[in-house]
Amino acid sequence: MIHRYRSAPLAVAVLVLAACASSGTSTVYRDSALAGTRYSNFLVVGVAGSYNSRAQFERQVVSALQSRGLQAAAFHAVAGGDMPVNRDTVSQAIAGKDFDGVMLTRVLDSSLESELKDPVTGSKVSRKQGNVFNLFRYDYEDLEDAPALTTKSAVNFRTDLYSTADGKLAWSIESKSKTFDNVGELIDSVAKTIVSRLDRDGLLAQ
């Protein structure tokens, strides 16, 4: 069944990092008892510390699925806003609906390297305090000229697909994404990667 997840960087340290463009994906679990099962109506769930990032991610995956003629809905839209992701809220979201699959994506881990180039005397850099999602965010106080900050990041995420018929985990993938100029591009790439892998593994009803 769906387990409760504490907010961890995804969907979206994924979603709060400006990252970098190659990606690799591997299937890490497949329930042999559900082999041959295809899904046509998905509830899409993103786990993230930022509600806006989570909602954006869910919308992108829904759009990618719908572009293939499938049905899908975002958890935040069905649940009614910024609701916690746990067994009760997911069960309520699928109750009375025709979803045959619940797809949940979360970040496993992430890394970020930063480099300050051409620092100028008088410029001040201070790191925000807060939860893990703010760990790599910086505020700049411009006294004269600000230094240039470049970043390179890598995000590893996992997507689990549950069958609503019996609540069992049917399929899981882990993916690595690198090199994107902005969060929007990263979200779009992750969404496309997930749906492409679902198709490749024969899980989409066509």
- The strands making up the biggest β-sheet line up spatially as 1-8-7-4-2-3
At CATH's second level, what is the architecture?
3-Layer(aba) Sandwich
Sequence of secondary-structure elements = HEEHEHHEEEEEH
Assembly type of the chains comes to single chain
* Number of individual domains: 1
Low-pLDDT stretches are 3-22, 119-147
Rg calculated over all Cα atoms: 19 Å
Helicity level: 10-25%
Write the layout of secondary structure elements.
Blueprint: H1 13-16, E1 23-30, E2 41-46, H2 51-66, E3 71-74, H3 75-79, H4 87-94, E4 101-117, E5 124-127, E6 138-141, E7 148-163, E8 169-178, H5 183-200
Parallel strand pairs: 2-3, 2-4
Antiparallel strand pairs: 1-8, 4-7, 5-6, 7-8
Kindly describe this structure.
The chain is α/β, with parallel strands linked by helices. It has one domain (13-114, 151-200): Rossmann fold (3-Layer(aba) Sandwich), CATH 3.40.50. It has five helices and eight strands; from the N terminus they run αββαβααβββββα. A six-stranded mixed β-sheet has the order 1-8-7-4-2-3. A two-stranded antiparallel ribbon has the order 5-6. α2 (51-66) crosses α5 (183-200). The longest helix has 18 residues, at 183-200. It is globular, with a radius of gyration of 19 Å. The protein starts with 12 loop residues before the first helix and ends in a 6-residue tail after the last helix. The model is unreliable at 3-22 and 119-147 (pLDDT under 50).
